[in-house]
């Protein structure tokens, strides 16, 4: 049995199996655990790379003719945060259908405008089905002590004093993401084996995480 020594490895120059080229995608789909600073990181990465950032609110701005409002989105989110729903339930829910159709229309517009990052509202597979290249990214964190003060920055949760209440709200916010993903994908939201790029914000923090993400969006 021979132990490999990289200094003696045969040259791979010119071998396509080793030299496939990476190209910046048309779209980055960014999922983020709540309080992993995904929106901030995505927005900063777009500023660094020249991509356009979209989340649910930005997407709604693209389709005012849909009649879907931020109040409609808030009402749907209130429903989605309550419990895990099946795909069948979601695709037969009138409130979900109304918002989802508006989002799909907006995403088509966003993709047609040029390179973009979409936070949470679509899957990599759906973007590819629309004829665009795409990579999927997940930002996550494991330090709950760090997540709690981040949650309290939000106007939604700044008045909560009990940490257990804050943690419960964080899990509810993730349930919105889980249900939205469930409606469109066979994969499990947050399953780290299904993403192209994982960014642990406990290690890389906000600003460097944005730089890491931006580096995948600038190569040609």
Please, could you describe this protein's structure?
The chain has 220 residues and is α/β, with parallel strands linked by helices. The chain has one domain: Rossmann fold (3-Layer(aba) Sandwich), CATH 3.40.50.300. It is built from 10 helices and 5 strands, in the order αβαβααααβαβααβα. Helix 3 crosses helix 6 and helix 8 packs across helix 9. The model has no long low-confidence stretch (mean pLDDT 93).
Helical content class: 40-55%
Domain module tally: 1
Total DSSP helices: 10
Instruction: Tell me about the largest β-sheet.
Output: 5 strands, parallel
Mass-distribution shape? globular
Beta-strand segment tally:
5
| CA radius of gyration | 19 Å
CATH topology: Rossmann fold
| H/E element sequence | HEHEHHHHEHEHHEH
CATH architecture heading = 3-Layer(aba) Sandwich
Q: What fraction of the residues are assigned to beta strands by DSSP? A: 5-15%
Side by side, the strands of the main sheet go 2-3-1-4-5
Q: Tell me the structural class.
A: alpha/beta
CATH class: Alpha Beta
Mean pLDDT: 93
CATH superfamily: P-loop containing nucleotide triphosphate hydrolases
In the predicted model, the low-confidence regions spanning at least 5 consecutive residues are none
Q: What's the N-to-C terminus distance?
A: 42 Å
């Amino acid at each position: 049995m021979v132990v490999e020594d990289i200094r003696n490895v045969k040259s791979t120059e010119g071998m396509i199996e080793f030299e496939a080229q990476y190209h910046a995608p048309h779209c980055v789909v960014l999922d983020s655990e709540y309080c992993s600073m995904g929106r901030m990181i995505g927005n900063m990465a777009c500023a660094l790379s020249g991509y356009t950032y979209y989340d649910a609110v930005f997407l709604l701005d693209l389709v005012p003719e849909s009649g879907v409002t931020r109040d409609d989105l808030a009402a749907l989110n209130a429903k989605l945060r309550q419990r895990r729903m099946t795909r069948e339930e979601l695709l037969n829910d009138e409130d979900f259908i109304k918002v989802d159709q508006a989002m799909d229309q907006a995403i088509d517009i966003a993709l047609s405008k040029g390179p973009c990052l979409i936070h949470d509202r679509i899957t990599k597979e759906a973007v590819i089905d629309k004829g665009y290249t795409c990579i999927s990214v997940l930002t996550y964190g494991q330090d709950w002590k760090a997540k709690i003060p981040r949650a309290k920055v939000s106007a939604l949760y700044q008045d909560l004093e009990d940490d257990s209440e804050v943690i419960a709200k964080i899990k509810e916010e993730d349930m919105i993401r889980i249900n939205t993903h469930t409606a469109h994908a066979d994969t499990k939201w947050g399953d780290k084996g299904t993403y192209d790029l994982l960014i642990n914000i406990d290690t890389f923090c906000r600003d460097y995480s944005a730089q890491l993400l931006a580096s995948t969006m600038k190569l040609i």
